[in-house]
């Protein structure tokens, strides 16, 4: 199983960014896909998950600002992040099955 997260970068507070996770090596369309993040000096925390049917669930800290979508034809999951805050800074990892992606860095400047 391979997961490749991309789209991270540096953005100002209030800005937007879109992360993408490309998955190969398993039955993507029948699996939930989740995003987690880890800020410097903190534990990894749940951000959002999208089920195989497209239902979504978000951490309270990102609810209303982040939106997940999936493309089962392309085996990708996108995380649209709006109204970004410095507290959103961290390394973002996608997760499916029992596999973690390498992560992509998001830095939000104040």
Task: Describe the structure in your own words.
- By secondary structure, the protein is an all-beta fold.
- Helices cover 0% and strands 55% of the residues.
- The protein contains no helices and eleven strands.
- The chain has strands at residues 2-6, 9-12, 17-24, 33-38, 44-50, 56-58, 66-71, 76-81, 90-96, 99-100, 104-109.
- Strands 2, 4, 5, 6, 9, 10 and 11 form a seven-stranded mixed sheet that branches.
- Strand 5 and strand 6 form a beta hairpin.
- The protein is globular and about 40 Å long.
- The protein starts with a strand and ends with a strand.
- The mean pLDDT is 95.
- Overall strand count: 11
Fraction of residues in H or I helices: under 10%
Structural class: mainly beta
Number of helices: 0
Instruction: Identify low-pLDDT runs.
Output: none
Globally, the shape reads globular
Written as H for each helix and E for each strand, in order along the chain, the element string is EEEEEEEEEEE
Percent in strands: over 45%
Distance between the termini: 37 Å
The major beta sheet can be summarized as: 7 strands, mixed
Taking Cα atoms only, what radius of gyration do you get, to the nearest Å? 13 Å
Mean pLDDT: 95
